[in-house]
Fold each of these.
Amino acid sequence: MMTTMMVIWGECILMTSTELLHQFDDLAFPKPFGFDSFTQADLDLFLTDPSIWSFGLKKERGKGILYGKCHTDLRCQLVNGRPQAERLKILGDKFRFFRIAEKLHLMVRDPISFTIEDIIDIGMGNSVYRVTLRLDNGQAMDVVVKQEEWDAQSFFSRLLLDLGWPYYRSSHIKDNYGGWQVLDYLGHTTIYDAVMDPDSHDELPYIETQLARHAALGDILGRGDRHFENYLVRDGILYPIDVSFLFWDGSEEWVWKYIAGGMSEYTLLSLAKTEADFNQRRASFWKTYLETLKDLATQESLICRHIEECFGEKDPLTPVKTAFVHERLSDYQAFFEAQQRLYDDAFTEMVRRKKMKSQLQAWVSAHSHDLDEYPWLKMYYLADRDRFSTFFLLEDRDEKMLLAPLQG
Ligand SMILES: Nc1ncnc2c1ncn2[C@@H]1O[C@H](COP(=O)(O)OP(=O)(O)O)[C@@H](O)[C@H]1O
Ligand SMILES: [Mg+2]
């Protein structure tokens, strides 16, 4: 029987993949909810068929179904927990099938060659691989490779470079196997990890400042999906990752949804311990936000030139993108005021939801055996556990019905 190592509370425990799959069963949902468990056949197919790139969660799209860290940890564990030689063989076969080594050359310029020393899955809902390369000059290099059709990421990284902001390398390639993103590996520290780590407490104000800057830039570019797992912190510097939605029509509506769901830059302010602390952090957020808008307004022509260069002057959507930016920067003071109103309104909603999150946690402590009867409650409980998020997309649900069991 295949075994896999799992570290729990610092102890090494041998887990079979069957045991891991059983653990996943407890975290999945009875049909027809739309978030199924993995079967042994799913796993075997992924492990034996090199043409299957991702071991993705079996979740229906478009239904607002959310997953938790527990799901992604187990999903990765089913792949990464295998002995290294076996894992390298399985993932190496996939890399050969999809000709990944050629794409990695985007990060390692000829004539330097390399060998692949290790591959692990660091993705959330789908597989995203961290690859450790050994260059022929002896140096080690970690890069990330991910399937991605639209290349918003490289546009964004290069813009960061042009603006003089911290940036990382990112390349995109399209071939017969689809679209691929290859990126510098930025470590594993999410905002949540940074906030929870007492050693990085001194860095927090600086992280909040950088979040405010990225909130402003994100709003100007209509960058979506800016939740806390799409930022990483390395050496105190904040890096936005997973840039896939830009110039999104209705972007502000999504900003509201993410703040109300406790998973956007501004929601970190809810960690303030006192009213005075909150007021000070809020003032500092908006000061940085406004300064960033002002700064970006002076660089509007650079941003628009960059859009034209990246997406092509002749592309009919390019003027739509530059107009998107212009609309927001031309009267940035009015935009600033509108965003303040929007952010604060969503924040009030988030505070209300945080209370419900505590209520749900207390209810589960007392009634954990009942949780399977209420799949949406179970989903929110698992999705929000060990995260700052709170009832994301609740506005799309029937709140009264959803929360009725908590009242009883
Ligand atoms: N460049 C990177 N450096 C380090 N970790 C990364 C990097 N890119 C992605 N990751 C990790 O993989 C996870 C999933 O990648 P992401 O690009 O966000 O894909 P998805 O579209 O599936 O959310 C991220 O939340 C992060 O933990
Ligand atoms: Mg992501």
Amino acid sequence: MGSLLIKNARLILDDCIKDGAVLAEDGRIIRILDDDSGIHSDCVADLKGMYLSPGFVETHFHGGGMCDFSDGSDDAFLTAIDTFLSHGATTLFPTIIATTENEIWKAIRAFSEAVSIEGDKVTLPGLHLEGPYLSSAQKGSLPERFLRDPDKNEYKAIAESGVIRRWTLAPERSGSMELIDYLVSRSIVPSIGHSDAEYSCVLEAFRHGCHLITHLYSAMSTIVRRGGFRFPGIIESAFCIEGMDSEIIADGAHIPPELLRMVWRHIGKNQLRLTTDASRCAGSDVKEATIGSRENGTPIIVEDGVAKLLDRSAFGGSIATPDRLIRVMWKTAGVPLVDAVKMYTATPSRVFGLEKKGRLAEGMDADFVCFDESVSIRGVMTRSFRSGVFA
Ligand SMILES: [Zn+2]
């Protein structure tokens, strides 16, 4: 692969942005430089003052480019992954919505095929299953007919496929604590979402090793009153339980900018991750589609910059590509750029144990995204692949 010098860049580092250069060799960052004079390399990219960020780490998206992972074909995986790669995400967790057992298995097979084709180009740590052990009361846009209590035989067989990295579940469902114990024992990250749990149940799940909340504010419980007394839900748990990590859909539609800013202030850049939770509509301009598979999915329309159910009672995932999240957090919610980037790079890398990802620092993988002042992506480069040219 040889060496690569990326110079005249505005480097987005851990806690600051500064002008400089990066020298990479054989897919690894070997030096961060203030001054690149006298440095020789096989290849040079001059960014002419544009930003250089670590590649984005997208941990929850269902598709893109008009393909959904539940379609269950390797073509669907490749199209959606390439769509997200071209918008700056170099580490990706394809997510399967609650569906039939048959479709989950089809997606597992297609994912394994995609890894064998794309595994050198992008980083695909594993699949994220969003269900089917979720709450009907907080189904959001998920089809209720697929939601159920954990089934031990089913989840053990799925986990043994070896490709599941994260599993979103509702801890109040019967058998969920046993499921959490099992997932933790297999190093699969459990995550609370589409759930009506109260604080006491969330705390119990946390103590079993469930340290993550899926799309905070979307499809989850908040304070309820019984006999005058108030009982906190999942939203409050995200703020009160020390050590709990959260993700938030930062497309600017699911969560208004003032709330995005509040969550950043109070949960903070080290425990909050950005996600698109994108539907197949991301990276396309269609107005009608389905979420989930073409066969078993739910129809949606696209308006106001988001996908909605036909009766407009709920959102059906976002249409955001990765660059939009940075733009929304920085330009609309008023969060510093360095923090917005951290919540989409270093923090998700830490949560999922990806030690070589998410930072511009010596020894890290050479996954880069270059963008301009309006967060238009001008180039993406991964440790073994060059997509387009930095220009
Ligand atoms: Zn989702």
